[in-house]
Design goal:
With 698 residues, the protein is mainly α. Helices cover 61% and strands 3% of the residues. One of its GO terms (biological process) is chloroplast organization.
């Protein structure tokens, strides 16, 4: 009986032993897009040596190697080329004996021979010369050890041809599996495919290790669709996947975005208690994150905890990026703290993901803390991260912090402000009404060679409109037209906002600009300014306007139009617009009713729109009493917190004053900011005493 060699091949996750057998001849199968006769490509020595990477120990670690956190960290030092010793199955009773007798060690002649073969030019003549110098009495076991020690697949393949000539009746599939592993190490999937074709042409039957190695090669080469193809090809060669291959396919299907197959195999893995490596969980988390299923990310993370699988940096970074996309800063904070407790140190991708999560959720305190930590630890901050910070500062009003970060950016030496940087900061100054600072930054942007875009000009219009500087608004509009920039819906909305701020005497100047920029909006404004009486035509014009407006601008535009109605003393038109907004679902969930309470929700409405909604609601309450209905025990008005730093006329302040003016029984709730509450008895008594509908005050 022949010897049994226990050689670890990273092409398979399990411990694989090969028994002596003779390969059965088979018909050659060649794929149409592969060459019929495989020829070794000529590669310069520097090319194939520079492609070599350290050898991972398992099939999924081969994938993990390419996602090692150090590869994501610009500060991490790359590992020197290294090669682990051949791995013996510790369960085998012959393992110790084989290791004792093996010549495979760092100082063995086989190791030196492998290094010589790795470094020589890839020609059959040179490879044969090196092997001949060692002697021509190689056994199959010797050949396997030499090939497994090598790192260069191109010269290793030439060595296989030499061994095929010298060693008769060897199990050549083992030789080819080792070469496939080397092609995977240098990420040459095309070479692996051609080698498989050569196997078939020579009548060598592929086995489970062959397919698992090719599948993992496709995966590490970022070709998951190729991996799926090879997985589906296995049954036609009589190879059945084992649990380790199925486990790898969870990762592969996750990479392709095939959630159904990935989850089907994942559920099976949990039910049958397969061993699933960390990289598979990371792949599932990335899949859920890219598809927007953020709860799915957290479920996989919790599965890892239950199964006792320790997350690595890739897992944590994938989770943090997903939470950032979801604007779930609290979850990101908890995950980060758990990562630190696990003894892992944040790298650049960790900080970038955290910064994204905090900036998108407007967690300014935590975002600024991450920024300072990045600076203190010497992490480079690129333009994208700086711009995320500026965008957050512009939205929450952290002006002083933004100015300091802007100076840091300009003095960093690694990046400079771009158009988005200036747009964010100009928007920040615009929102805070700092006109001189905004104009200075606008001039700096122009001097830096950046042409103003519609976003920048929109911010200028908003700022000048808020300051009631009508002529400057008109000047910016003319500048936009001169530059050949088409005014978008947001720009037109800011023109309309400016119109709600300036005196009535100056409405005409802005109405002319709006008419040129957006004729449909201009037509609706003309109805209001000229007090035209045709209600049906007005609703039709307004409906056509909203249906042609971008979704994220509709509410703001409807708010501004209602504000303009209130300013022009057109309460009926204001109610028409509010009703149209509800019909078109521009406004949703303004009222909520149950047997115990009726609430009016005014958060994110403008002052005019909120007052209009209040008048409609109070009149509805009066009609309910007239019809003999009883009011619920509790009535409430929710105006929101009103904490935005840019707001001057926040709703809670306006409503507190307005409700006092109406002598309404609604009082500020002690434990609910922005809420005004009244009992049914108080509301009923007040409604019966007023005897008329609520009219809007300008």
């Amino acid at each position: 009986m022949g010897e049994c060699y226990l050689v670890w091949s990273p092409g398979c996750c399990c411990c694989c032993s090969y028994g002596l057998h003779t390969g059965k001849p088979m018909t050659c199968i060649s794929f149409s897009y592969w060459p019929r006769h495989f020829k070794l490509a000529k590669f310069p020595l520097s090319h194939y040596l520079s492609a070599l990477v350290p050898q991972p120990k398992t099939l999924l670690q081969a994938i993990n190697t390419l996602q090692d956190p150090t590869l994501d960290d610009p500060d991490a030092k790359s590992s020197p080329l290294s090669r682990t010793s051949i791995w013996f199955n510790p369960q085998s009773p012959r393992a110790k004996l084989l290791w004792k007798n093996s010549r495979h060690s760092n100082s063995s002649p086989f190791t030196k021979l492998a290094k010589s073969l790795d470094s020589c030019n890839p020609t059959q003549e040179l490879v044969s010369e090196i092997l001949n110098a060692f002697g021509d009495t190689f056994s199959e076991r010797d050949a396997v050890i030499i090939l497994d020690t090598m790192m260069n697949p191109y010269t290793a393949l030439l060595a296989v041809r030499y061994f095929q000539h010298k060693i008769k009746h060897a199990r050549y599939v083992i030789f080819y599996n080792v070469i496939l592993k080397l092609f995977r190490d240098v990420r040459d999937f095309a070479g692996a495919e051609k080698l498989f074709d050569e196997m078939l042409q020579k009548g060598i039957s592929p086995n489970l290790i062959t397919f698992s190695t090719i599948i993992s090669c496709a995966s590490v080469c970022s070709l998951p669709h190729k991996a799926v193809k090879w997985f589906q090809l296995m049954p036609s060669f009589g190879c059945e996947p084992d649990n380790n291959v199925f486990s790898l396919m969870i990762y592969v299907y996750a990479r392709t975005g095939n959630a159904d197959m990935a989850l089907k195999l994942y559920d099976r893995a949990k039910a049958e208690k397969w061993y699933v490596e960390t990289v598979v969980f990371s792949g599932l988390i990335k899949m859920f994150g890219m598809s927007g299923n953020y709860d799915g990310c957290l479920k996989v993370y919790n599965d890892m905890k239950v199964l006792g699988v320790k997350p690595n940096m890739i897992t944590y970074n994938a989770l943090l990026y997903a939470m950032g996309r979801a604007k779930r800063a609290r979850d990101a904070k908890v995950i980060y703290e758990e990562m630190i407790r696990d003894g892992l140190s944040p790298n650049w991708p960790t900080y970038a993901a955290l910064l994204q999560a905090y900036c998108r959720a407007r967690y300014s305190r935590y975002a600024l803390r991450v920024y300072k930590e990045m600076k203190n630890t010497g992490k480079d901050i690129d333009t994208i991260l700086y711009n995320m910070l500026f965008d957050m500062c512009a939205n929450v009003g952290c002006v002083d912090e933004a100015v300091k970060i802007f100076e840091d950016m300009k003095s960093s030496g690694t990046c400079q402000p771009d158009s988005f940087t200036y747009s964010s900061l100009i928007n920040m100054y615009s929102s805070t009404g700092k006109i001189s600072e905004m104009e200075a930054l606008f001039n700096e942007m122009m001097e830096s060679g950046f042409e103003p875009n519609v976003i920048v000009l929109t911010s200028l219009v908003h700022c000048y409109g808020k300051a009631r500087r009508t002529d400057d608004v008109v000047k910016i509009f003319n500048q936009l037209m001169d530059l050949g920039i088409s005014p978008d819906d947001r720009f037109c909305d800011c023109l309309l906002y400016a119109m709600t701020q300036v005196p009535k005497e100056e409405h005409g100047k802005l109405a002319d600009c709006i008419e040129k920029a957006n004729p449909k909006l201009g037509s609706v404004i003309r109805y209001l300014m000229e007090k035209l009486e045709t209600v049906g035509d007005f609703r039709k014009e307004a409906s056509e306007l909203f249906n042609s407006t971008e979704a994220d601008v509709k509410k703001s535009m409807c708010n501004c139009l209602i504000d303009l109605c209130v300013n022009l003393d057109e309460p009926d038109r204001a109610r028409d617009l509010l009703d149209l907004g509800l019909t078109l679902q521009i406004y949703t969930s303004i009222q909520s009713r149950s047997q115990a309470k009726w609430f009016l929700h005014l958060k994110r409405l403008s002052v005019g729109a909120a007052l209009t909604a209040l008048s409609v609601w109070i009149n509805d309450l009066s009609k309910a009493l007239e019809l003999g209905e009883e009011l619920p025990p509790l009535l409430g008005i929710n105006t929101g917190h009103g904490k935005h730093k840019f707001s001057e006329k926040v709703l809670p302040t306006v409503f507190e004053s307005y409700l006092k003016e109406l002598k309404a029984p609604f009082q500020k709730a002690a434990n609910k900011a922005g809420w005004f509450l009244a009992t049914s008895e108080e509301a009923t008594s007040w409604l019966q005493s007023r005897g008329s509908t609520v009219t809007l005050t300008q």
